[in-house]
Amino acid sequence: MFSPKFRLSLLLGTFLCLPLILHGQDRSADTTSSIVGEAFTIFDIKSAANSGIVMGSTYFPKAGCDVILVADGETLRTKIGNDGRFAFSGITAGLVTLSIVPPKEAKDAPFVGTFELMPGENNMVIPWQRPAMPEGSMLQLSEEPIITMEENTWVYHFPRISGSGYAGPEPKDESNLVSKLIGLSGVEYDKNNHLLSISEDAVHRIHINGAFVFGLNP
Fold it and tell me: How many beta carbons lie within 10 A of that of residue 164, not counting itself?
């Protein structure tokens, strides 16, 4: 039999260790995620039909599309708002499948992608792939890529949109992702040229079916 003094010491030691054990469990269980997405198409505006002269660009959010997220055996649904954005929160981190289904009258193909959602906040940029505009139209799909690769650095050519909806020198606002990436270690911001250079170690990056996912929590 243990002496009363030994039993008291054992009980006291267990009590002192308990907060550390629970704290460790809480940290390991903190695997919830959120995702904010932005889906859009960039069009070039020609000076006239069949003209090769580009006057500027305009930004079309993919408003009204159904968004379906399958994560940890659950199916969550929302719609893209008028600003082209959608969001989910309280998701278990891990492999997820995201589907975006345009309205039938749009005649656009849906987007589907499976990727790893990181713990914390994830931002998704979806340059929408849609059928080409009719030949001769003053609006044509922009040929400029949203993100280019320079060795192990991604360069994000983010659209800056003026109050009228046309790309111009004075932005209406910067995208949700840009405002969150600015200032992070490994991210360089070129305001004059609307560029973000994002190094490999700055954030967790995924390219899936033409879309780009950034896990913002290291």
Answer: 10
The pLDDT of residue 51 is 65
CA proximity to 69, closest of 90, 88, 92:
88
Separation of alpha carbons 45 and 27, rounded Å: 51
CA distances from 56 to 45, 84, 128, 165 (A): 5, 20, 19, 10
Sign of CA dihedral 38, 39, 44, 45: negative
DSSP string, 172-216: S---HHHHHHTTSTTEEEETTTTEEEE-TTTSEEEEETTEEEEE-
Strand partners, 97: 70, 114
- Residue 43 token pair: 């069009």
pLDDT digits (tens, 9 = 90+) for 202-218: 899 999 999 999 998 75
**Number of alpha carbons in the 13 Å side-chain half-sphere of residue 98:** 31
List, in sequence order, every residue forming a beta bridge with 152; answer none if it has no partner.
none
**How far, in whole angstroms, is CA 186 from its chain's centroid?**
18
What is the rounded CA–CA span in Å between residue 101 and residue 173?
27
Q: What is the pTM of this model?
A: 0.75
Are the CB atoms for 93 and 203 separated by under 8 Å?
A: no
Of 70, 114, 119, 124, which Cα lies nearest the Cα of 93? 119
What pLDDT, on a 0 to 100 scale, did the predictor assign at position 174?
A: 52
